[in-house]
């Protein structure tokens, strides 16, 4: 972890800061061709291509009738997991559902003399969730991706996950999802985007994955909607001299253990805090840590502590980075809230540790990465609905606005637009 003193300096010219921002630029050239070939084959050959790539990449030979996990197996997984984990997942589901129910949007209509104008909100018909599988267990990914779709009223929700384990299946059961396909990678994205003889085409694909999955989502966008092209995880902690350095260090480590490209960033007004956090990470927390290799590479390459003049500057640096996760651990964290413009999720106060948000608080943990918090939002119910404008105009309403429409059509040189209005003038 590198300590960088930005006091009295222009942070926008910091090479270390720019290196952090650029770290999520994908090296796509070496993968793009392979991904496009996989998608092309799945689109043209369907199940046959999915079977071929699943055997090649995952070492599993499937028949089409073996794609789907039998519902009895999903139900058995729910019953077989440890009671305390089952309870934790149920609590998570209920809390996440309650939060997302507050996001429900309703159709509306505005009436004026001679017109009725409105917006009709309807859920998408079918959604596909991608969940990493194999040795990894990500039941929280199932819950965070499924609940917004469930609350939105999506009729059919499917999951694709290579070799899904019992926790993934148990979470699917809790969310009321009965269809889980044991396929993964770019071939699974292609199957959900184009449809195969066995896998139905969906309207939207959400969920994290490796670079093959991310590039596949990018390439099928337009055939289907997607949530985002997720980059490596990141956390930024704003801390003053009142922060507990061990707590800050633990929170930074919680992101470093995700990925060698994950960024753990401290922005502080205290040089003492910066030094203590670094010492605790390297001399205490990394010792005998089960994911030490991953976390150490992450911290060595993308772990930074930036020392700034004041908390207002800290907020500016944070906005410049636009982090996925932002923790504010200061004497009065709420005083900075109005100054934060770009962040996926904002955690206020020393007890609001980011891992709570990953699992049980309620807000979604699917968040914009790689500075995309400047223009995008957490996954939500609004991602699984469509909106249609509804327009009714009576003769009286027509007479109120027809002249303006004709004048604009004339200015744009669109003769038929003007004609469509004029033919109604002399009924």
Automatic annotation (TrEMBL):
Binding site for Zn(2+): 255, 258, 358, 417
Catalytic activity line of the entry: L-histidinol + 2 NAD(+) + H2O = L-histidine + 2 NADH + 3 H(+)
PROSITE patterns: HISOL_DEHYDROGENASE
Residues reported to bind NAD(+): 130, 187, 210
Cofactor entry: Zn(2+)
Binding sites annotated in the UniProt record for substrate: 233, 255, 258, 325, 358, 412, 417
EC number annotated for this UniProt entry: 1.1.1.23
Cofactor note: Binds 1 zinc ion per subunit.
UniProt keywords, alphabetically: Amino-acid biosynthesis, Histidine biosynthesis, Metal-binding, NAD, Oxidoreductase, Zinc
EC top class named in words: oxidoreductase
Annotated InterPro entries: Ald_DH/histidinol_DH, Histidinol_DH_CS, Histidinol_DH_monofunct, Hstdl_DH
Pathway annotation from the record: Amino-acid biosynthesis; L-histidine biosynthesis; L-histidine from 5-phospho-alpha-D-ribose 1-diphosphate: step 9/9
Gene Ontology molecular-function annotations: histidinol dehydrogenase activity
List of catalytic residues: 324-325
NCBIfam families xref list: hisD
HAMAP family found in the cross-reference section: HisD
Role: Catalyzes the sequential NAD-dependent oxidations of L-histidinol to L-histidinaldehyde and then to L-histidine.
Family of the protein in this entry: Belongs to the histidinol dehydrogenase family.
Name this protein carries in UniProt: Histidinol dehydrogenase
């Amino acid at each position: 972890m590198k300590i960088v003193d930005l006091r009295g300096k222009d942070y926008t010219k910091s090479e270390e800061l720019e290196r952090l921002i650029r770290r999520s630029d994908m090296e796509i050239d070496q993968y793009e061709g392979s991904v496009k070939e996989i998608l092309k084959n799945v689109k043209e050959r369907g199940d046959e291509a999915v079977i071929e790539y699943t055997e090649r990449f995952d070492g599993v030979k499937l028949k089409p009738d073996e794609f789907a996990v039998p519902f009895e197996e999903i139900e058995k997984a729910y019953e077989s997991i440890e009671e305390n984990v089952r309870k934790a997942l149920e609590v998570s589901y209920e809390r996440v559902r309650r939060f997302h129910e507050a996001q429900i949007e309703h159709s509306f209509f505005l009436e004026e003399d001679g017109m009725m104008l409105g917006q009709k909100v309807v859920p998408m018909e079918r959604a596909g969730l991608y969940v990493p599988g194999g040795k990894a267990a990500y039941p929280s990914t199932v819950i965070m991706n499924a609940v917004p779709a469930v609350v939105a009223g999506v009729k059919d929700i499917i999951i694709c996950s290579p070799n899904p384990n019992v926790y993934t299946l148990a979470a699917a059961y809790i969310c009321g999802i009965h269809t889980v396909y044991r396929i993964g990678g770019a071939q699974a994205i292609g199957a959900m985007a184009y449809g195969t003889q066995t896998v139905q085409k969906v309207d939207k694909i959400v969920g994290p994955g490796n670079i093959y999955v991310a590039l596949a989502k990018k390439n099928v966008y337009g055939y289907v909607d997607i949530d985002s092209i997720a980059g490596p995880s990141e956390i930024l902690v704003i801390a003053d001299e009142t922060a507990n350095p061990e707590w800050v260090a633990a929170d930074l480590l919680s992101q470093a253990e995700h990925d060698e490209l994950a960024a753990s960033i401290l922005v502080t007004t205290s040089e003492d805090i910066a030094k203590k956090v670094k010492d605790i990470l390297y001399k205490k927390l990394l010792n005998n840590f089960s994911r030490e290799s991953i976390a150490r590479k992450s911290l060595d390459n993308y772990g930074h502590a930036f020392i700034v003049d004041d908390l207002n500057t800290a907020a500016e640096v944070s906005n410049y980075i636009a982090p996925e996760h932002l923790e504010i651990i200061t004497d009065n964290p709420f005083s900075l809230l109005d100054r934060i413009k770009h962040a996926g999720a904002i955690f206020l106060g020393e007890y609001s540790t980011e891992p709570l948000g990953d699992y049980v608080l309620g807000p979604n943990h699917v968040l914009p990465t790689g500075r995309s918090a400047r223009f995008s939002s957490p996954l939500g119910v609004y991602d699984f609905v469509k909106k249609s404008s509804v327009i009714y105009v009576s003769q009286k309403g027509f007479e109120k606005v027809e002249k303006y429409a004709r004048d604009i059509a004339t200015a744009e040189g669109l003769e038929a637009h003007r004609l469509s209005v004029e033919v109604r003038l002399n009924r």
